[in-house]
Amino acid sequence: MIEQTGNAVRKEESAGLMKYSAENLVPFGPIHPALKEPEYFKLVLEGERIVEVIPRIGYVHRGLEKTAESRPWVQNMYMFERTCGICSFVHSLTYGQAVEGLTIYEIPRRAKFIRTIIAELERIHSHLLWVGLMGHWTGFETLFMWVWRDREVVLDLVEAISGNRVHKSMNAFCGVRRDMPEGMEDRIVERMKFLVDRANYYKQIVDTEETMLERTEGVGRISPDTAEKLCAVGPMARYVGLKHDIRLNDPYAAYEEVPFDIVTRKEGDAHALLKLRLDELIVSANMISYAVKHLPSGPIRIKIPPIIPAGEHSSHSEAPRGEIFYYVKSSGGRTPDRVKSRQPTLANLPTALEMLKGQTLADIPVVLTAIDPCFGCMDRMSFVDIESNKKWTWSGEQLRQYGISKYFPERSKKQARTHSQPGQEVTSTKLCYKEEGF
Amino acid sequence: MSEVLLQQIEKLAAEAQTKSAQLRKGETIVEVDQRQLKNFIKRLVTETSARHLSTITGLDLDQNIGIIYHFWIERNTIHVKTFVPKTAPAALSIVDIVPGAILYEMEIHDMFGITFEGNPWIDKKLLLPDNWPSDLPPPLLKNANAAEIRKRLGLEVEKK
Lengths: 438, 160
What we know:
The structure holds two protein chains of two kinds.
Chain A: H1 2-14, E1 40-46, E2 49-56, H2 64-68, H3 73-81, H4 88-100, H5 109-138, H6 141-162, E3 171-172, E4 175-176, H7 185-208, H8 210-216, H9 224-229, H10 235-238, H11 246-249, H12 270-293, E5 311-319, E6 322-330, E7 338-342, H13 344-356, H14 364-370, E8 380-385, E9 390-395, H15 396-407, H16 429-435
Parallel strand pairs in A: 1-8
Antiparallel strand pairs in A: 1-2, 3-4, 5-6, 6-7, 8-9
Helix pairs in contact in A: 3-4, 4-5, 5-6, 5-12, 5-14, 6-7, 7-12
Chain B: H1 2-15, E1 20-24, E2 27-31, H2 37-47, E3 52-61, E4 64-73, E5 76-85, E6 90-92, H3 102-112, E7 115-117, H4 146-152
Parallel strand pairs in B: 2-5, 6-7
Antiparallel strand pairs in B: 1-2, 3-4, 4-5
Helix pairs in contact in B: 1-2
């Protein structure tokens, strides 16, 4: 019993909440395998407004950087690809580029084009997935269904090219493992045209549909200056007008040869992010069509020895969510001395915390989805109201329902009965589990 | 653009009594003494166009722990490297100059045990579990053994 209290106090200390709650503890359940992705935010509220957010991540930290030090260079490429289930290719691409920088070999031009095509297909996939999730969290399920159906188009193409839907395993050092199948050109161009049409239609929807406008306009505002200071990357920098795109600023693969326009917006709210990602999707689709038509002939790969010369090198590239960064250090052996990988969600987290401040409770799902987090679904949150000193815990679904009921009261009357109401105290985690059907 | 930036960095490095070297095209490495690091980064951010800190990397180098700050500007990456002795793993935080460094410093604190003076969240854990045994070495140091970490954290899976 004593030990339990000790543990709880230590948890409280590590989350930095001592100054807000001296005697009472905010219960936070164990990490359950049935939850989606585990992550944890402590939010300090003043009435409805968020005053402070304290993140606690690392529940799915698997120690890849440590593991990499004991594995051969080639094996690491496919291990780092498994960092993420959505932007998997770009991890192996960036790690590969970092290692290739230590060698003397040139990458064949055809391989560069194939890399570009796969990377852009992946971007379309990721952006579509995100638009669907945005529909889900704002209470617009129809959009979710439509967008995720269109996402299958991309997955089918990826499967036809690489043989896999998620982990493409296409990369090799100084090239790619598989060539483009013959006769794919027409099919890809036709499918890209279909996706551009759909994206234009979705742009029309998000501009006119009341649900989307009301939930996203003016939500999650941030100034360009703050975004720059907090080192925001990818769409989170572009939606406030910063021209921050590594494909353009520091080209890799075939991005120097494939023409494209950088998309930026000025409004700086969640609605701007929706339009930005849909615009980027169209740009990517056009890039793929161009790259497929202008695919050069030649070899796709150069075989290199398994020993990488000593030295250090870094590489970065533009993943769907922003800048991915890899640093490798070699002492001339069969395994790396050190590999450092930094994912875009970690870089965007300080910006997201800043966006949340001053927002209301109902906007949390929209703002946190807006950064396109890799740790996704906000399954569990603890709340502390510093005015009334109330504490409670909500699951992600409860929070989503609360957000919808706040904006569209008449719509969620039917659904509201099973979920706790704003301010209702949930004192034990058991209650939460029960409501989620455990 | 790039030439001007390189000259600026060379000038800054000369004033900090250190040398800048070009690793290869577009990559510059500057090794700065730990006491002068904060001043150097402040001047780098205010006097040149380097704003974006990509990340901070930690390195285990036998007697020392290396810290590399990767700044990115257009087609150039600037690696600012410094060393901290393992016997006294402490450094000054740059959060007041580059606010985006806050989580990267927490990560280095977790993984290499370096305390960053001035980081408001440095006493909190970011990636390591709450029940991390305090007598174990920080996990990314070379003397940390993955098997032992798994054993102490109760993560061993019995082989059948």
